[in-house]
Amino acid sequence: MGRRGISLVVVLLGLAGLGYFASQNIVVRNLINLIGYERTLDSYSQTDTTVTDVTARVDATGREAGLISAFYGLDDGLPYIFGLASCKGAGGKDGMPVIFTHEVDIRTLEPGDFRITTASGKLGEVVCLTLAPADDPGELRTALVIGQYGSLADQPATVEITGNVLSLDGTVNFKGASVAATPLESGPSLVWAERVPQAQWALGRAATRLPWGGGDGCPVGTAQVVRVAWDGGVRKTDGTEADLSTGQLYEVTVKASDGATRSVTPAALANLGDGDNNHELCLDVADPAMSVRMPAGNLIDPRDDVNDETVIAVTVTD
Predict the structure, then answer these.
(1) Under CATH, which number does the domain 42-180 receive?
(2) What is the tens place of the pLDDT at every residue in 190-248?
(3) Three-class SS string for the chain?
(4) What does the domain layout of the chain look like in residue ranges?
C-alpha cells in the first residue's frame, strides 16, 4: 500500500474513532445537539414593548393572575454552557426562576417587565430571561430571570411585574403582580400542583436528546397524571437526576367518591431528562388527587440546599 493509501486509512480510522467517542460521551453529544438548537423562548428587551387592551387580573374561573414564587437560586453561579443553549452571556450571572399562576405568552414577556428590589432598596439588572427548559405543554409558567440583581449580603427582596405580560390564552394581564423573593440559603419547595388534562399526558413519550426541554411521559396505562413544580430545579441529594426512587418519596392524597381520603405513592415518575423544575406523578388510581407532599431531606437545589418538608394543594385547571 502506498503512502497516500496509508494516510487515507489513518484518516478514516481517526474519523471512526471520533464518531465512536461522540456517540459514547454525553458532553460531546450535547454539544452536537446544541448546534441545531433553535432559541425561541429567550427575551432580551429592556423595555415593555407589549401593546394590549387586556387589563383583567382574574380569569373566567375566578383565579387571579399573579406570581407564585421567585427563587433566588444562584448568585453569580449560572454555568457558562447555559449561554450556549439559552440567554446569551448568561454564564456567571445570577439565576432566579419566577413562577406565574398561569402559563405565559413569551411574546409579551421581557426583562424590562421585571423590577427586582434588594433588601437595601437597590434595583437589580435583568439582562435576559427564558422559559426554557420548562417548555413542555402545560409548563410555560416558569421564567428563568438572569442578570445581576443581588448578592448574599444584599439579596433580592421583592419581584414585581411592571409591564404588560399576558397569559398564554391572552385573557389576563400580570401587570402589578408581585411576590417576596425566596432567600439564597433556602432549600427548594413545591409551589404548584395540578391535575394534567388528558390531552397533555403523552403516555410512553421518550425524552429528547438534549438535557433540557422535552421530558419523558408517564407509562402507558397510567390512570391519572399530576404535574408538580418546584420553585427551582431539583436533584437527588447525591447530585444525580431524579428517578423512580424519587417518585416513590412523593405522597399523594386522593379522594374517593364517598369522600374518604388516602395516601398513595406514584407508580412512576415522568418529565425527567429535561432539566426543568417540573415532575409528573404517574398514578395508577383514578380517584382525584387533592394534595402532594415531599418529606424533608430528599432533594437539593442547584446550590445543594436541601428541601424542608413541603406540601401543596392540587389545583384543577381543566
Answers:
(1) 2.60.40.1220
(2) 999 999 999 999 999 888 766 555 789 999 999 999 999 999 999 999 999 999 999 99
(3) CCHHHHHHHHHHHHHHHHHHHHHHCHHHHHHHHHHCCCCCCEECCCCCCCCCCCCCCECCCCCECCEEEEECCECCCCCCCHHHHCCCCCCCCEEEEEEECCCECHHHCCHHHEEEEECCCCECEEEEEECCCCCCCCCCCEEEEEEECCCCCCCEEEEEECCCCEECCCCCECCCCEEECECCCCCCCEEEEEECCHHHCCCCCCCCCCCCCCCCCCCCCCCEEEEEEECCCCEECCCCCCCHHHHCCCEEEEECCCCCEEEECCCEEECCCCCCCEEEEEECCCCCEEEEEECCCCEECCCCCECCCEEEECECCC
(4) 42-180, 190-313
